[in-house]
Write a structure and sequence with these properties.
The protein is mainly beta and about 325 residues long. The protein folds into three domains: about 1-120, Immunoglobulin-like (Sandwich); about 130-240, Sandwich (Immunoglobulin-like), CATH 2.60.40.10; about 250-335, Sandwich (Immunoglobulin-like). Helices cover about 0% and strands about 50% of the residues. It has one helix and 27 strands. The protein has one helix at about 165-170; strands spanning about 1-5, 10, 15-20, 30, 40-50, 55-65, 70-75, 80, 85-95, 100-110, 115-120, 130, 135-140, 145-155, 160-165, 175-180, 190-195, 200-205, 215-225, 230-240, 255-260, 265-270, 280-285, 290-295, 300-305, 315-320, 325-335. Strand 2 (about 10) and strand 3 (about 15-20) form a beta hairpin. The relative contact order is 0.12.
């Protein structure tokens, strides 16, 4: 039997409710039983928490939506949670025939907000769960921000992740850069096998590159799981909170190259807080430097397509320089 609880963090006035919160992204946890024996009750516990510390919370009702004859809960409400307190209640499932049940437990608060907990029973296949990442507002002239995402196998069988949709991430507005723990391209982490309850941490760098706008993208992972919860949704907004008057400021010049790994063609993105002529070169692992292009520069973000088909496969350092600043980026070439 699998009991899966998925609940986003939701603000309700001055308080919020969570079910077994396990990450800052607000996903709920999963109580996973695998297949359960017939005609025998199986019970697990779930924690209902009031995450706010400034006021209490009244949960007026708790109920099973579709199969109350097969899924029983120890409390139907009302239940009052003091600020910062947790209520433990039991969920018991019993079935007479082999079957797969998808159901929902609903929690209704005193201001009529409804919170849903998904219940899955009777499957032992892998289930993928991926956290979302919200960056909020990021200074457009900064180096951006790197935040963590988590992939979990909340099923029973091994979860095999083979990669993600690179074409989505390498679009014309590529402000998000998925990475491993060590800053390498995320694609190098796959394939990977996650056993039951195992997790994989990854990182995504968000760099508005001077764009004063909101940006949304996603990392869609490929795996042997049939569940739809395989997408990490990315949200961020580039804002300008301060003026840069010093041309020597290290934030005044930034560069990135995509895709990485590249094969024959790539795209270089440059952000300049102060317009200035620039030169771009690449350096291989032996220290040999190859001039690539130069330009007069422009304020804000600019993009330049480059041909890398003549370079040998391997790791390179991309360098852009002006008379006041220098910026670098690592990338690889594969065939």
């Amino acid at each position: 039997m699998i009991i899966r609880v998925i609940l986003s963090v939701v603000f309700m006035g001055t308080f919020l409710l969570s079910v077994d919160l396990w990450s800052a992204e607000g996903r709920g946890t999963t109580v996973n039983f695998g297949k359960i024996p017939l005609n025998q009750p199986v019970t697990r516990t779930v924690n209902l928490s009031n995450e706010k510390t400034d006021r209490g919370l009244l949960v007026e009702s708790i109920y099973v939506l579709h199969h109350p004859d097969k899924i029983k809960i120890s409390s139907s409400g009302p239940a009052y949670l003091d600020a910062g307190s947790t209520l433990l209640f039991r969920v018991t499932a019993q079935i007479a025939v082999d079957t797969i049940i998808v159901d929902t437990i609903e929690f209704v608060s005193d201001d009529r907000k409804v919170f849903l907990a998904e219940i899955l029973i009777g499957t032992d296949e892998p289930i993928i769960q991926v956290s979302d990442i919200d960056y909020g507002e990021i200074e457009a002239s900064s180096n951006g921000e790197r935040k963590r995402g988590v992939i979990r196998n909340i099923g029973v069988s091994d979860l095999v992740i083979t990669g993600y949709d690179e074409s989505k991430m390498n679009g014309t507005n590529n402000f998000f850069d998925p990475q491993t723990d060590f800053g390498r391209p995320l694609i190098t982490a796959f394939p990977v096998v996650l056993s039951e309850s195992d997790s994989l941490m990854f990182w995504v760098q968000y760099s508005p590159m001077g764009e004063l706008a909101g940006h949304t993208s996603n990392v869609a992972f490929y795996s042997n799981a049939r569940t739809e919860d395989s997408i990490c949704i990315l949200n961020g907004k580039g804002v300008l909170t301060s003026n840069i008057n010093d041309e020597a400021d290290t934030r005044s010049l930034r560069v990135r190259i995509s895709p990485s790994p590249a094969s024959t063609a790539a795209r270089i993105e440059i952000y300049q807080a102060v317009q200035s002529p620039f030169t771009i070169s690449i350096t291989d692992v032996l220290g040999r430097q190859y001039p690539l292009l130069s330009g007069q520069g422009s304020f804000g973000a600019s993009t330049y397509p480059v041909d890398v088909s003549a370079y040998e496969p391997g790791s390179y350092v991309l360098q852009v320089s002006t008379d006041k600043a220098l910026s670098t980026a690592l990338f690889t070439i594969v065939r």
